[in-house]
Design a protein that fits this description.
With about 250 residues, the protein is mainly α. Helix content is about 65%, strand content about 0%. The radius of gyration is 32 Å and the shape is elongated. The C terminus is likely disordered.
Length: about 250
């Protein structure tokens, strides 16, 4: 989310004429037009579709969702720390560097979101709480989409004021490092684990279980209207009705 907010700003920023003071103090961007940025965004979309439709199924069958997720999450901090330095590349290599970073980003995103959703579903202890878990995850993601770009944009503007254009990128990279450590603590549910439990089957079973005594009492009450209370009905012999002639015995 922060990447999507910072990258267009980075690409459209004017090329700086101020000599960089390495390792951290430098400013400037690529000075791209909106048209050139649009071409790059189209390339991102194509690479994302390829990675999600072709690469992910192959890698998931071979390595499993958890290993893929860990690999991509560990790659995110490296990407965030490297992107600002692409502006310092020689002019003939800058476009190659930014295309490499964008391809890296789209591939990592396409390979990290599906495993995350799959493991979230498999971790649900019961089908009864699966909707609650997915709702909480969706709400958390929406909250991050709302506040993530806002906070990152504020940090980026403060970094520009002090001549450090990569500040927003590097702070986000530190947050990604925390997420990478958390991924090492994750465990993957066993494949084929059923989310259904006896409680789920009981709660979702649409069959109506009727007590046989209730049927007897209903038949007696229908054929013996002189009985006035439940005790008399239950003690009375059941009247069996012949479905052919409607007579009882």
């Amino acid at each position: 989310m922060s990447f999507d907010q910072l990258m267009p700003i980075f690409l459209s920023s004017k090329v700086s004429k101020v000599p960089p003071n390495l390792p951290f103090k430098f400013t400037g961007g690529f000075g791209m037009s909106s048209k050139d940025e649009g071409v790059l965004m189209v390339g991102q979309g194509i690479s994302t579709m390829f990675a999600q439709a072709v690469l992910f199924p192959l890698l998931a069958r071979r390595f499993g969702c958890l290993k893929i997720f860990r690999l991509t999450v560990i790659m995110w901090p490296i990407l965030y720390f490297l992107v600002p330095y692409t502006v310092l590349l020689p002019r003939e290599y800058r476009m190659l560097g930014i295309c490499f970073c964008l391809l890296w980003r789209t591939t990592a995103q396409a390979l990290s979101y599906p495993p995350n959703n799959i493991m979230l579903t498999n971790s649900a202890p019961s089908m009864l709480v699966l909707g609650t878990i997915n709702g909480a995850a969706g709400s958390t993601a929406s909250l991050c989409r709302a506040f993530g770009p806002t906070i990152t944009g504020f940090i980026h503007s403060k970094g520009l004021n002090v001549g450090v254009s990569g500040l927003g990128w590097w702070i986000t990279g530190i947050v990604c490092i925390i997420g990478a450590f958390e991924s090492l603590l994750m465990t993957e549910p066993k494949m084929g684990k059923s989310l259904a439990s006896p409680m789920d089957e009981e709660a979702t079973d649409d069959r109506i279980m009727i007590n046989p005594l209730s049927i007897d009492a209903a038949l007696v009450a229908a054929t013996r209207p002189e009985l006035s209370n439940a005790d008399e009905i239950l003690r009375a012999p059941r009247s069996r009705t012949d479905p052919k002639d409607g007579t009882g015995s």
